[in-house]
């Protein structure tokens, strides 16, 4: 203590000087508008720098919780996007297909959750099952055209046999002259199927539109399937065959709709009685 | 040998000169004469450091009141008063420090160096505090040099007359 006092006394002039300078400085800052503004501008800048540094450090330690929050937000946004995308897909189909033309028909929107295109026995799985009203032998379409037919259903999923599977056979017609044929896939190219059993006298041309015939309770009439690519068979053949470039890109099909006929059971029941009667 | 009254008189004259005359003109916006600091320079050798300091601060404050720049003159004049013993020790010999006061007639050439140094420090500090910004340091330096030269000339001239 004595030493401190001694030190202070030894430098008493200097401390007085410091005191007076501080006093002067306070006077300058307090009494002079210009100097005050300058002083506080620098003081504020200095404090801002300090806050910036401490804030950066605090931010670093907060990164984990920020990351968690962001990940959670990301997931929520993704869910929302999926929901909206589904709605958009549904609405797109709805407007394109104009289901009001088929009053006995409604569609169930579905998302493709599995899709194989690389094999012969291709199939798709969609995320709607009998719990949502999907049943076997219902037609599945997308905005680009016919996709396939439901083969098996579980509660929330359904297996769809697409056009690009050799077991699938779909009743089709040439839109221009309503000539019927049968659409099958020969298992060679994923984007091209064959339309067979076209009467020999019909001469389809490349580019002709192929649509569903509607002669079944699977697809409504006039749903786009594809366009004629090339024609096989000579003049003398009783039937001719054409390659059909499919409208649906099976490699990227994502959102589809299941066509549900109101009177499907009645129609198929009627067919069955006919079959049994034979 | 000068009495306290004589110093008070000197102070009064210097302040009046400063406030009534020198505060009112400036040559080219660069030369501003602050003659009042002469009072701190002329105080006797024996003046205590604390007393010097407080007198410097007081005279500066008085100037501040007259010129509406509270604190600026006080800070620079207190600085000069604080540095005065050191600057004297730097230039004056031990023999000269024994004299009554740091005046031209007592210490001769040492007075010129002593006066110029302290006047420049005072003026430069004054301009720097007025500008209150490092970006005007060059300007404060220029004004400090020019104004200190002018003030020093006057102070030395007066000292010559007193010889």
Please characterize this protein's 3D structure.
The complex is a heterodimer of chains A (278) and B (163). With 278 residues, chain A is of the alpha+beta class. Chain A has helices spanning 2-10, 12-31, 33-61, 63-97, 264-277, and strands at 105-115, 124-126, 139-142, 145-153, 158-162, 170-174, 179-184, 192-199, 209-212, 224-232, 239-246, 255-261. Chain A has 2 domains: 2-61, no CATH class; 81-277, Beta Barrel (Thrombin, subunit H), CATH 2.40.10.350. The model of chain A has no long low-confidence stretch (mean pLDDT 79). Chain B is mainly α. Chain B has a single domain (4-162), classed as Arp2/3 complex 21 kDa subunit ARPC3 (Orthogonal Bundle). In chain B, 73% of the residues lie in helices and 0% in strands. Chain B contains 8 helices and no strands. Chain B has helices spanning 4-21, 38-42, 49-67, 72-91, 94-97, 104-107, 109-131, 137-162. The longest helix of chain B has 26 residues, at 137-162. The radius of gyration of chain B is 15 Å and the shape is globular. In chain B, 42% of the residues are buried. Classes of the chains: A alpha+beta (278), B mainly alpha (163).
